[in-house]
Amino acid sequence: MEDVYKTIEKPSQETLFKEKSSKFFGYAFPISSEEDVKNILENLKKQHHTANHFCFAYQLGFPEKRFRVSDDGEPSNSAGMPIYGQIQAFDVTNILVVSVRYFGGTKLGVGGLMSAYKTSAQLTLETSEIVEKTVNEQFRIYFTYEVMNKVSRILKQFDVYVTHQKLEVSCEYIISVRKKDTLKVFEIFSEMYPITIEKLES
Q: Record's Gene Ontology CC terms (predicted)?
């Protein structure tokens, strides 16, 4: 089962690519929604208030992915798609790559722009710290104190992460299980008494 994807956990360092007096400042950001994109672009526009173009591409989701590109006033497909091409080349998701252009007075032509935006995105992704993550599902389990050692042993066996715990008269854990292990973990806990397990909607 395909449950591993690549992304970044923190924004990249700023990169700078120059072509015929035009400057292209490159950035990569981890994102989880379109709302993140809007906020990041607003901040970049404050930071670069005299720049001419804020071209970007982003990709969200795994295994089903959705993406969007923007040429932001540059000729059609000369900026956003070359940036997105690098997102595909580096095989990353949940990421936004932005190239901020200051026009230097010399037109680059469509071919020159495509090359410049591709290079800007490539430099940015090369400086980014790319990490592997797993697709996980959340479950809630209820159990009594006398079976806590058994529960802990199973969690350790499948490398399950406890994201939340409530220890009162009885115990309640919210656990994050790697997708490939969900069926097995669910079956084990379902068959154990006195433990109840339920899947949480993501």
A: cytoplasm
